[in-house]
Design brief:
Elements: E1 3-5, H1 7-14, H2 19-24, E2 40-47, H3 53-56, E3 57-59, H4 62-71, E4 84-85, E5 91-93, H5 99-106, E6 109-116, H6 124-129, H7 141-150, H8 161-167, E7 177-179, E8 195-196, E9 203-205, H9 215-229, H10 235-258, H11 280-293, H12 295-298, E10 302-309, H13 318-342, E11 349-355, E12 375-381, E13 389-390, E14 414-415, H14 416-427, H15 434-437, H16 441-444
Parallel strand pairs: 1-9, 2-10, 2-11, 6-13, 6-14, 7-8, 7-10
Antiparallel strand pairs: 3-5, 4-5, 6-12, 11-12
Helix pairs in contact: 11-13
Amino acid sequence: MNMDLSRRDFGKLLAGAGVTAAFCQLGRSAAIAAPVSGYKAMVGIFLFGGNDGWNMVVPTDANRYGLYASTRNAGLVLPQANLAALAGSDYGLHPSLAPLKTIWDEGGLNVVLNAGTLFQPLTKAQYVASPSLRPVNLMSHADEQAHWQGLRARDINVDGFMGRLTDRAASASIPSLMSFGGSQLALLGKSTSPLVLPSTGTVTRFSTNGNAADPVVFARAAAVSAFADGAGQGAVTQATATGFSSAYDQVVQANSILSVSSTVDQYFVNPATGAALTSDVARQLIRVARMIEARGTLGHSRQTFLVSQGGYDTHAGQISTQAALFTDLANAMLGFNRAMKALGLNENVTCFTMSDFGRVYNGNAQGGSDHAWGSNHLVMGGALAPRQVIGTYPSQVMGGADDMFTDGRFIPTLSQEEYIGAIARWHGVADADMPYVFPNWATWNGGGRGPLALFQS
Protein backbone atom coordinates (compact mmCIF):
# COMPACT_ATOMS: atom_id res chain seq x y z
CA MET A 1 0.00 0.00 0.00
CA ASN A 2 1.44 3.40 -0.99
CA MET A 3 1.04 6.55 1.03
CA ASP A 4 0.44 9.41 -1.44
CA LEU A 5 2.56 12.44 -0.67
CA SER A 6 -0.16 15.05 -0.96
CA ARG A 7 0.33 18.63 0.18
CA ARG A 8 -0.89 17.72 3.67
CA ASP A 9 1.36 14.65 3.88
CA PHE A 10 4.31 16.66 2.63
CA GLY A 11 3.78 18.98 5.54
CA LYS A 12 3.86 15.99 7.86
CA LEU A 13 7.04 14.72 6.23
CA LEU A 14 8.82 17.98 6.90
CA ALA A 15 6.89 18.42 10.19
CA GLY A 16 9.31 20.96 11.62
CA ALA A 17 8.67 24.04 13.69
CA GLY A 18 7.55 26.06 10.68
CA VAL A 19 8.68 26.15 7.06
CA THR A 20 11.93 27.88 7.88
CA ALA A 21 12.93 25.18 10.35
CA ALA A 22 12.04 22.48 7.85
CA PHE A 23 14.24 23.99 5.18
CA CYS A 24 17.13 24.54 7.59
CA GLN A 25 17.37 20.79 8.18
CA LEU A 26 20.06 20.11 5.59
CA GLY A 27 21.94 23.35 6.01
CA ARG A 28 22.96 23.02 9.62
CA SER A 29 26.58 23.13 10.65
CA ALA A 30 28.46 20.97 13.11
CA ALA A 31 26.72 19.52 16.14
CA ILE A 32 26.44 21.63 19.26
CA ALA A 33 26.48 18.70 21.67
CA ALA A 34 29.74 17.41 23.03
CA PRO A 35 31.29 14.69 20.85
CA VAL A 36 30.35 11.17 21.82
CA SER A 37 31.75 7.92 20.49
CA GLY A 38 29.88 4.90 19.20
CA TYR A 39 26.38 4.41 17.86
CA LYS A 40 23.23 4.81 19.99
CA ALA A 41 19.52 4.91 19.33
CA MET A 42 16.50 5.66 21.49
CA VAL A 43 13.05 4.34 20.59
CA GLY A 44 10.00 5.88 22.26
CA ILE A 45 6.83 3.78 22.23
CA PHE A 46 3.79 5.95 22.91
CA LEU A 47 0.73 4.05 24.18
CA PHE A 48 -2.08 6.39 23.16
CA GLY A 49 -5.22 6.62 25.25
CA GLY A 50 -3.78 6.35 28.75
CA ASN A 51 -2.40 2.94 29.65
CA ASP A 52 -3.44 1.36 32.95
CA GLY A 53 0.06 0.88 34.32
CA TRP A 54 -1.38 -0.58 37.52
CA ASN A 55 -2.25 -3.73 35.56
CA MET A 56 0.94 -3.55 33.50
CA VAL A 57 3.02 -4.01 36.67
CA VAL A 58 1.40 -5.52 39.79
CA PRO A 59 2.94 -6.04 43.25
CA THR A 60 3.21 -9.71 44.19
CA ASP A 61 4.05 -9.56 47.92
CA ALA A 62 1.17 -10.77 50.06
CA ASN A 63 0.24 -7.44 51.65
CA ARG A 64 0.24 -5.22 48.57
CA TYR A 65 -1.28 -7.82 46.26
CA GLY A 66 -4.04 -8.28 48.84
CA LEU A 67 -4.71 -4.54 48.79
CA TYR A 68 -4.59 -4.54 44.99
CA ALA A 69 -7.18 -7.34 44.85
CA SER A 70 -9.47 -5.74 47.40
CA THR A 71 -9.17 -2.12 46.21
CA ARG A 72 -9.49 -2.43 42.45
CA ASN A 73 -12.86 -3.14 40.92
CA ALA A 74 -13.26 -6.91 40.81
CA GLY A 75 -13.51 -6.79 37.02
CA LEU A 76 -9.96 -5.41 36.79
CA VAL A 77 -8.13 -7.77 39.15
CA LEU A 78 -5.55 -10.09 37.60
CA PRO A 79 -5.12 -13.43 39.43
CA GLN A 80 -1.77 -13.52 41.16
CA ALA A 81 -0.96 -16.95 39.76
CA ASN A 82 -1.29 -15.59 36.21
CA LEU A 83 1.22 -12.77 36.62
CA ALA A 84 4.62 -13.09 34.94
CA ALA A 85 6.77 -12.85 38.08
CA LEU A 86 9.91 -10.72 37.74
CA ALA A 87 12.62 -12.72 39.47
CA GLY A 88 14.35 -10.94 42.35
CA SER A 89 11.55 -8.39 42.78
CA ASP A 90 8.12 -8.15 44.39
CA TYR A 91 6.40 -7.42 41.08
CA GLY A 92 4.90 -9.26 38.16
CA LEU A 93 3.92 -8.26 34.64
CA HIS A 94 0.47 -8.56 33.12
CA PRO A 95 0.12 -12.14 31.79
CA SER A 96 0.03 -10.90 28.20
CA LEU A 97 3.44 -9.29 28.73
CA ALA A 98 4.98 -12.64 29.69
CA PRO A 99 7.29 -12.67 26.60
CA LEU A 100 9.14 -9.74 28.20
CA LYS A 101 9.99 -11.84 31.26
CA THR A 102 12.77 -13.45 29.21
CA ILE A 103 14.29 -10.03 28.62
CA TRP A 104 14.03 -9.24 32.34
CA ASP A 105 15.81 -12.50 33.17
CA GLU A 106 18.57 -11.57 30.72
CA GLY A 107 18.99 -8.18 32.42
CA GLY A 108 17.56 -6.07 29.61
CA LEU A 109 14.30 -4.80 31.14
CA ASN A 110 13.62 -2.23 33.88
CA VAL A 111 10.38 -1.05 35.49
CA VAL A 112 9.74 2.60 36.36
CA LEU A 113 7.02 3.15 38.97
CA ASN A 114 4.53 6.02 39.24
CA ALA A 115 6.02 8.48 36.76
CA GLY A 116 4.06 11.33 35.23
CA THR A 117 3.66 15.02 34.50
CA LEU A 118 4.95 17.26 37.29
CA PHE A 119 5.78 20.95 37.39
CA GLN A 120 7.72 20.42 40.62
CA PRO A 121 7.82 17.73 43.33
CA LEU A 122 4.30 17.73 44.73
CA THR A 123 2.64 16.44 47.87
CA LYS A 124 -1.09 16.05 48.25
CA ALA A 125 -1.18 19.00 50.65
CA GLN A 126 0.53 21.18 48.05
CA TYR A 127 -1.79 19.88 45.33
CA VAL A 128 -4.84 20.89 47.38
CA ALA A 129 -3.49 24.24 48.58
CA SER A 130 -1.65 25.53 45.51
CA PRO A 131 -3.28 25.10 42.08
CA SER A 132 -0.40 27.10 40.58
CA LEU A 133 1.92 24.19 41.32
CA ARG A 134 -0.19 21.68 39.39
CA PRO A 135 0.31 20.83 35.73
CA VAL A 136 -2.49 22.38 33.68
CA ASN A 137 -5.44 20.38 32.36
CA LEU A 138 -4.58 17.09 34.01
CA MET A 139 -6.42 13.99 32.78
CA SER A 140 -7.09 15.54 29.34
CA HIS A 141 -5.86 13.31 26.51
CA ALA A 142 -4.61 16.13 24.29
CA ASP A 143 -2.98 18.10 27.09
CA GLU A 144 -1.30 15.16 28.74
CA GLN A 145 0.00 13.87 25.41
CA ALA A 146 1.45 17.35 24.91
CA HIS A 147 2.94 17.29 28.41
CA TRP A 148 4.69 13.98 27.75
CA GLN A 149 5.95 15.00 24.35
CA GLY A 150 6.69 18.69 24.91
CA LEU A 151 7.64 18.52 28.61
CA ARG A 152 6.18 21.87 29.57
CA ALA A 153 3.72 21.17 32.36
CA ARG A 154 2.21 24.64 32.68
CA ASP A 155 2.95 26.29 29.32
CA ILE A 156 1.84 25.77 25.74
CA ASN A 157 3.94 23.13 24.01
CA VAL A 158 4.94 24.09 20.47
CA ASP A 159 7.84 21.69 20.06
CA GLY A 160 8.91 18.35 21.52
CA PHE A 161 11.82 16.75 23.31
CA MET A 162 12.85 14.50 20.41
CA GLY A 163 12.92 17.46 18.04
CA ARG A 164 14.89 19.60 20.47
CA LEU A 165 17.28 16.70 21.07
CA THR A 166 17.82 16.46 17.32
CA ASP A 167 18.45 20.22 17.16
CA ARG A 168 21.60 19.43 19.15
CA ALA A 169 22.68 16.47 17.02
CA ALA A 170 24.90 16.14 13.95
CA SER A 171 23.18 16.67 10.61
CA ALA A 172 22.89 14.06 7.85
CA SER A 173 21.38 13.85 4.37
CA ILE A 174 18.40 11.98 5.82
CA PRO A 175 17.09 13.04 9.27
CA SER A 176 18.22 10.93 12.20
CA LEU A 177 14.82 11.53 13.83
CA MET A 178 12.15 9.30 12.32
CA SER A 179 8.57 8.45 13.16
CA PHE A 180 6.53 5.46 12.08
CA GLY A 181 3.80 6.53 14.50
CA GLY A 182 2.56 9.58 12.64
CA SER A 183 3.26 13.30 13.00
CA GLN A 184 3.50 13.99 16.72
CA LEU A 185 4.50 16.97 18.85
CA ALA A 186 7.53 15.10 20.23
CA LEU A 187 9.14 15.30 16.78
CA LEU A 188 9.04 19.07 16.33
CA GLY A 189 12.31 20.90 16.81
CA LYS A 190 13.14 24.57 16.57
CA SER A 191 15.64 24.13 13.74
CA THR A 192 15.23 20.53 12.57
CA SER A 193 12.61 18.32 11.01
CA PRO A 194 11.82 14.62 11.32
CA LEU A 195 11.13 12.09 8.62
CA VAL A 196 7.58 10.77 9.07
CA LEU A 197 7.14 7.43 7.33
CA PRO A 198 4.32 4.89 7.02
CA SER A 199 4.25 1.57 8.86
CA THR A 200 3.46 -0.22 5.59
CA GLY A 201 4.24 0.43 1.94
CA THR A 202 6.38 3.25 0.65
CA VAL A 203 6.01 6.98 0.11
CA THR A 204 5.31 8.21 -3.41
CA ARG A 205 5.12 11.69 -4.87
CA PHE A 206 1.48 12.58 -5.44
CA SER A 207 2.40 14.37 -8.63
CA THR A 208 3.72 11.18 -10.24
CA ASN A 209 0.77 8.92 -9.41
CA GLY A 210 -1.36 7.70 -12.30
CA ASN A 211 -0.77 7.54 -16.03
CA ALA A 212 2.03 9.91 -17.03
CA ALA A 213 0.43 10.15 -20.50
CA ASP A 214 -2.63 11.74 -18.95
CA PRO A 215 -2.37 15.49 -19.64
CA VAL A 216 -3.53 16.36 -16.12
CA VAL A 217 -0.92 14.10 -14.50
CA PHE A 218 1.76 15.35 -16.89
CA ALA A 219 0.95 18.98 -16.17
CA ARG A 220 0.90 18.40 -12.44
CA ALA A 221 4.26 16.61 -12.52
CA ALA A 222 5.77 19.34 -14.68
CA ALA A 223 4.53 22.06 -12.32
CA VAL A 224 5.91 20.33 -9.25
CA SER A 225 9.24 19.70 -10.97
CA ALA A 226 9.48 23.33 -12.04
CA PHE A 227 8.66 24.52 -8.55
CA ALA A 228 11.19 22.10 -7.05
CA ASP A 229 13.85 23.63 -9.29
CA GLY A 230 13.21 27.19 -8.11
CA ALA A 231 16.16 28.60 -10.04
CA GLY A 232 15.95 32.33 -10.61
CA GLN A 233 12.65 32.70 -8.73
CA GLY A 234 13.92 34.65 -5.74
CA ALA A 235 15.27 33.73 -2.32
CA VAL A 236 11.99 32.57 -0.78
CA THR A 237 11.06 30.36 -3.73
CA GLN A 238 14.60 29.00 -3.89
CA ALA A 239 14.50 28.08 -0.20
CA THR A 240 11.12 26.42 -0.64
CA ALA A 241 12.36 24.55 -3.70
CA THR A 242 15.38 23.33 -1.79
CA GLY A 243 13.03 21.95 0.86
CA PHE A 244 10.94 20.11 -1.72
CA SER A 245 13.94 18.63 -3.48
CA SER A 246 15.59 17.59 -0.24
CA ALA A 247 12.42 15.94 1.02
CA TYR A 248 12.00 13.99 -2.22
CA ASP A 249 15.62 12.87 -2.05
CA GLN A 250 15.05 11.70 1.52
CA VAL A 251 11.99 9.74 0.45
CA VAL A 252 13.92 7.98 -2.32
CA GLN A 253 16.59 6.94 0.16
CA ALA A 254 14.07 5.84 2.78
CA ASN A 255 12.07 3.87 0.21
CA SER A 256 15.17 1.92 -0.77
CA ILE A 257 15.28 0.60 2.81
CA LEU A 258 11.55 0.17 3.38
CA SER A 259 10.69 -1.52 0.10
CA VAL A 260 12.85 -4.62 0.54
CA SER A 261 12.87 -7.32 3.19
CA SER A 262 15.76 -7.45 5.62
CA THR A 263 17.55 -10.00 7.76
CA VAL A 264 16.00 -8.37 10.84
CA ASP A 265 12.47 -9.28 9.72
CA GLN A 266 12.91 -12.94 10.69
CA TYR A 267 13.03 -12.10 14.40
CA PHE A 268 9.54 -10.59 14.49
CA VAL A 269 7.57 -13.78 15.03
CA ASN A 270 5.08 -15.04 17.59
CA PRO A 271 7.24 -16.83 20.19
CA ALA A 272 4.59 -19.53 20.66
CA THR A 273 3.72 -20.27 17.02
CA GLY A 274 6.58 -18.89 14.95
CA ALA A 275 4.11 -16.99 12.75
CA ALA A 276 5.20 -13.60 11.41
CA LEU A 277 3.93 -10.65 13.44
CA THR A 278 1.42 -8.46 11.62
CA SER A 279 0.26 -5.94 14.24
CA ASP A 280 0.84 -2.27 13.49
CA VAL A 281 3.24 -1.81 16.40
CA ALA A 282 5.26 -4.80 15.16
CA ARG A 283 5.36 -3.35 11.62
CA GLN A 284 6.61 -0.06 13.02
CA LEU A 285 9.36 -1.71 15.05
CA ILE A 286 10.39 -3.84 12.08
CA ARG A 287 10.96 -0.62 10.15
CA VAL A 288 12.86 0.92 13.03
CA ALA A 289 15.10 -2.17 13.04
CA ARG A 290 15.67 -1.78 9.28
CA MET A 291 16.67 1.85 9.71
CA ILE A 292 19.05 0.89 12.50
CA GLU A 293 20.53 -1.84 10.31
CA ALA A 294 21.07 0.82 7.61
CA ARG A 295 22.66 3.32 10.01
CA GLY A 296 26.00 3.25 8.15
CA THR A 297 24.39 3.90 4.79
CA LEU A 298 22.38 6.74 6.31
CA GLY A 299 25.44 8.26 7.97
CA HIS A 300 23.91 8.17 11.46
CA SER A 301 25.88 7.78 14.67
CA ARG A 302 22.76 8.67 16.65
CA GLN A 303 19.15 7.84 15.80
CA THR A 304 15.87 8.72 17.50
CA PHE A 305 12.58 6.97 16.71
CA LEU A 306 8.95 7.30 17.69
CA VAL A 307 6.44 4.48 17.30
CA SER A 308 2.92 4.26 18.67
CA GLN A 309 0.11 1.94 19.65
CA GLY A 310 -3.44 3.16 20.19
CA GLY A 311 -6.49 1.80 21.97
CA TYR A 312 -5.59 2.30 25.63
CA ASP A 313 -8.57 4.48 26.59
CA THR A 314 -10.18 1.59 28.47
CA HIS A 315 -13.29 3.00 30.16
CA ALA A 316 -14.97 -0.40 29.70
CA GLY A 317 -13.96 -3.97 28.91
CA GLN A 318 -10.40 -3.29 29.98
CA ILE A 319 -9.31 -6.86 30.73
CA SER A 320 -9.88 -8.15 27.20
CA THR A 321 -8.79 -4.94 25.46
CA GLN A 322 -5.56 -4.57 27.39
CA ALA A 323 -4.74 -8.27 27.03
CA ALA A 324 -4.90 -8.01 23.23
CA LEU A 325 -2.88 -4.78 23.15
CA PHE A 326 -0.22 -6.14 25.50
CA THR A 327 0.09 -9.35 23.48
CA ASP A 328 0.91 -7.32 20.37
CA LEU A 329 3.21 -4.99 22.30
CA ALA A 330 5.16 -7.74 24.07
CA ASN A 331 5.67 -9.81 20.93
CA ALA A 332 6.82 -6.75 18.98
CA MET A 333 9.25 -5.67 21.72
CA LEU A 334 10.63 -9.21 22.02
CA GLY A 335 11.15 -9.37 18.25
CA PHE A 336 12.91 -6.01 18.31
CA ASN A 337 15.12 -7.15 21.16
CA ARG A 338 16.12 -10.26 19.25
CA ALA A 339 16.79 -8.23 16.10
CA MET A 340 19.09 -5.86 17.99
CA LYS A 341 20.98 -8.82 19.43
CA ALA A 342 21.41 -10.28 15.97
CA LEU A 343 22.86 -6.96 14.79
CA GLY A 344 25.18 -6.85 17.80
CA LEU A 345 23.53 -3.61 18.93
CA ASN A 346 21.51 -4.59 21.97
CA GLU A 347 23.68 -2.42 24.23
CA ASN A 348 23.41 0.48 21.81
CA VAL A 349 19.60 0.77 21.65
CA THR A 350 17.12 1.69 24.40
CA CYS A 351 13.31 1.45 24.11
CA PHE A 352 10.92 3.08 26.57
CA THR A 353 7.17 3.46 26.97
CA MET A 354 5.13 6.63 27.37
CA SER A 355 1.38 7.21 27.66
CA ASP A 356 -1.09 10.04 28.24
CA PHE A 357 -1.60 9.20 31.91
CA GLY A 358 -2.37 6.31 34.23
CA ARG A 359 -5.88 5.22 35.14
CA VAL A 360 -8.02 5.20 38.27
CA TYR A 361 -6.91 2.45 40.63
CA ASN A 362 -10.36 1.76 41.98
CA GLY A 363 -11.88 1.24 38.53
CA ASN A 364 -15.48 1.73 37.46
CA ALA A 365 -18.68 -0.31 37.17
CA GLN A 366 -18.16 -0.95 33.43
CA GLY A 367 -15.11 -3.15 33.89
CA GLY A 368 -12.83 -0.29 32.99
CA SER A 369 -11.00 2.59 34.61
CA ASP A 370 -11.13 6.33 34.06
CA HIS A 371 -8.47 8.98 33.48
CA ALA A 372 -5.95 9.51 36.26
CA TRP A 373 -2.32 10.68 36.57
CA GLY A 374 0.79 8.68 37.55
CA SER A 375 1.55 5.32 35.94
CA ASN A 376 4.17 2.61 35.49
CA HIS A 377 6.47 2.23 32.48
CA LEU A 378 8.92 -0.20 30.90
CA VAL A 379 12.47 0.39 29.62
CA MET A 380 14.29 -2.16 27.46
CA GLY A 381 17.93 -2.35 26.34
CA GLY A 382 21.22 -4.07 26.87
CA ALA A 383 22.90 -1.03 28.46
CA LEU A 384 20.50 -1.00 31.43
CA ALA A 385 21.59 -1.93 34.90
CA PRO A 386 19.95 -5.35 35.11
CA ARG A 387 16.56 -6.15 36.62
CA GLN A 388 15.74 -2.86 38.32
CA VAL A 389 12.43 -1.60 39.67
CA ILE A 390 12.92 2.14 40.11
CA GLY A 391 10.56 4.41 42.01
CA THR A 392 7.96 4.00 44.70
CA TYR A 393 4.68 2.16 44.33
CA PRO A 394 1.94 4.42 45.76
CA SER A 395 -0.01 3.79 48.91
CA GLN A 396 -3.14 1.85 48.03
CA VAL A 397 -5.29 3.80 50.49
CA MET A 398 -8.07 5.52 48.58
CA GLY A 399 -8.08 9.18 49.51
CA GLY A 400 -4.70 8.74 51.19
CA ALA A 401 -1.52 10.76 50.94
CA ASP A 402 -0.76 9.65 47.36
CA ASP A 403 -4.30 10.00 45.98
CA MET A 404 -5.33 13.34 44.45
CA PHE A 405 -9.02 12.42 44.93
CA THR A 406 -10.62 9.47 46.71
CA ASP A 407 -10.49 6.69 44.11
CA GLY A 408 -6.81 6.12 43.31
CA ARG A 409 -5.67 8.91 40.98
CA PHE A 410 -2.12 8.78 42.20
CA ILE A 411 0.17 11.82 42.25
CA PRO A 412 3.40 10.89 40.44
CA THR A 413 6.56 10.61 42.49
CA LEU A 414 8.89 10.58 39.47
CA SER A 415 8.83 13.24 36.77
CA GLN A 416 9.00 12.73 33.05
CA GLU A 417 12.25 14.69 33.07
CA GLU A 418 13.90 12.29 35.52
CA TYR A 419 12.70 9.33 33.46
CA ILE A 420 13.28 10.46 29.87
CA GLY A 421 16.21 12.65 30.89
CA ALA A 422 18.16 9.56 31.94
CA ILE A 423 17.67 8.07 28.47
CA ALA A 424 18.58 11.33 26.72
CA ARG A 425 21.79 11.64 28.73
CA TRP A 426 22.69 8.03 27.88
CA HIS A 427 21.90 8.84 24.24
CA GLY A 428 24.59 11.53 24.32
CA VAL A 429 22.90 14.84 25.11
CA ALA A 430 25.55 17.04 26.68
CA ASP A 431 24.93 18.39 30.18
CA ALA A 432 24.96 21.94 28.79
CA ASP A 433 22.15 21.01 26.38
CA MET A 434 19.86 19.29 28.88
CA PRO A 435 18.02 22.55 29.80
CA TYR A 436 17.34 23.10 26.10
CA VAL A 437 15.94 19.62 25.55
CA PHE A 438 14.09 19.66 28.91
CA PRO A 439 12.81 23.21 29.59
CA ASN A 440 12.16 22.50 33.30
CA TRP A 441 15.47 20.69 33.81
CA ALA A 442 16.67 22.96 36.62
CA THR A 443 13.77 21.81 38.80
CA TRP A 444 14.66 18.14 38.37
CA ASN A 445 18.45 18.21 38.41
CA GLY A 446 19.61 19.00 41.92
CA GLY A 447 18.44 18.98 45.49
CA GLY A 448 18.39 15.21 45.57
CA ARG A 449 16.61 14.86 42.23
CA GLY A 450 18.09 13.91 38.89
CA PRO A 451 18.09 11.41 36.03
CA LEU A 452 17.10 7.91 37.12
CA ALA A 453 19.93 5.43 37.53
CA LEU A 454 18.68 3.24 34.70
CA PHE A 455 22.00 2.41 33.08
CA GLN A 456 25.17 0.59 33.98
CA SER A 457 27.90 2.99 35.02
